[in-house]
Amino acid sequence: MKIVGLSGSIVGSKTRTAMNDVAMEIADKYPEVDFRLIDLADFNIQFSDGRNYLDYDGDTAYVTKELMDADAIIIGTPIFQASIPATLKNIFDLLPEKAFQDKVVSIVVTAGSSKHFLIPEQQLKPILSYMKAQVVQSYVFIEEKDFYRREIINDDVSFRIERLVEDTVVLTETYSNIRKAKEEEYGF
Amino acid sequence: MNMEKYRINQNEGLEFGLYTLGDHLPNPLTGERISAEQRINEMVEAAKLAEQAGIHFFSVGESHQEYFTTQAHTVVLAAIAQATEKIKIGSSSTIISTSDPVRVYEDFATIDLLSNGRAEIIAGRASRVGLFELLGYDLRNYEELFEEKFELLLQINENEVVNWNGEFRAPLRNAKVLPRPKDGSLPIWRAVGGTPASAIKAGIQGVPMALAMLGGPVSHFKLSIDAYRESLIQAGRDPLDFPVATTGFFYTAETTQQALREYYPHINEGMKYTNGRGFAKQLFAQGADKRSVMLVGSPAEIIEKILYQHEQFGHQRYMAQLEFGGVPFDKVMKNIEIIGNEILPAIKKYTAKK
């Protein structure tokens, strides 16, 4: 199973801090999973101009290919101006329309205010559904007060990350088994 | 009704063609890929067999990215022109956006003379865009490059002496584009993708349309064909003067189940290489339904589907893509044989004027 963690912003440290915890949780509980964390801050991604993702080069080609090859994607995102950051939306724009078909996608959100709680529900999930993802319904919503410097200090958040990782792995296995059984039925 | 200009004789019924994109992919069953040399020579061989089987048209596409081998598609077509005598030959498609229409016309008019008047152009704008960088064009001009160059190509076809001004090519002053094709002009088609918007452009322009149908219901593509004919009428033309061609995946074997089983790995793996995403098995399974455009099945089911599509579309040519994704040549030969022996006689029987 290949899981990609996507830290969707190029500024700040909180989303990356949360995604580091996701990475540690996977390494600890599911060492057999091929996991890699892609932090957009480490890459130079160009804006989507509508071409097929195979026609980009450099970092853009690398990141899009990693995402397309994944069985599951855990998206980490901050909330900017009551929405997802442009850097994350650009990743979606770079990918084909049905890019997330047969993939499980789960969400970790960091936000400066509890008022942003419904933003992933209303803005991120519709994009993921449109792109055919099997979305893990519950997301982890983390607020400013849950961090102290580069650490999560709210135990409840740590438990929620554990549950999110477990749900992601279990659902990916489940969907993959269901699909396999169904495809065998077709007989070709 | 007058499609003579496009060398279509409707009394003969629906034309059947074969086309290749020129893909050069491993056979997913063995993991092995034949050499580019073998691949293009097998295309010429397939064209000869198609001619012997009574197939009406054979075409080769231009693609410049990895996993393709007909970058110089006009050269391959010239070889086919020499190897055959009757079958009509063309491109599927020629990427006019990144070529000089004068050179394209010179090439195809020459192929037309070499082939005793059998050459046609289907002009498209590329679904993959690596060739823009390779050939020195700016992707931002994707739309306009196609429209301007396609218009120029049409002008060259209609006029022996051309005066022309545009943005993407030096002007032409009393330019004679030579040689001229055998019958004075070439059939030039516009390649159209899946949306009615693109079909409407072909109608406004007043050119024949070649419609790509990868998968989906017949009714979906009928919308594009209806929109095309409606826009022809709105532009003051008669739809009866303009042929429509459809293209799609084709594979036949003894039973439909066998055809699905043999062809699916090629489509699925081939799409991964060329488009970056496989072909969902669920969709492919639905492709066997009569209402779906994909022609994968037993000869009897394929005949039934072609006739159903002909009834719905009223099209003049169907073009089959049967060798995509590394289908081995013995299977290609077998398919051509079945087309010639079983499918073509049935199509002729039901669609030709008696």
TrEMBL record, chain A:
Domain NADPH-dependent FMN reductase-like as annotated: residue spans: 1-144
Superkingdom per UniProt: Bacteria
Keywords noted in UniProt: Flavoprotein, FMN, Oxidoreductase
InterPro entries the UniProt entry points to: Flavoprotein-like_sf, FMN_Rdtase-like_dom, NAD(P)H-dep_FMN_reductase
Xref: SUPFAM superfamilies: Flavoproteins (SSF52218)
MF terms in GO: oxidoreductase activity
Family matches, as PANTHER family: FMN REDUCTASE (NADPH)
Name of the featured protein: FMN reductase
Species for this entry: Ornithinibacillus halotolerans
From TrEMBL, chain B:
Coiled-coil boundaries: none
SUPFAM superfamilies: Bacterial luciferase-like (SSF51679)
All residue ranges annotated as the Luciferase-like domain in the record: 15-313
GO MF annotation, one: monooxygenase activity
Keywords: Monooxygenase, Oxidoreductase
GO cellular component, one term: cytosol
UniProt cross-references to InterPro entries, sorted A to Z: Bact_Lucif_Oxidored, Luciferase-like_dom, Luciferase-like_sf
Pfam families: Bac_luciferase (PF00296)
Keyword Cell cycle: no
UniProt protein name: Luciferase
Taxonomic source organism: Ornithinibacillus halotolerans
Upper lineage: Bacteria, Bacillati, Bacillota, Bacilli, Bacillales
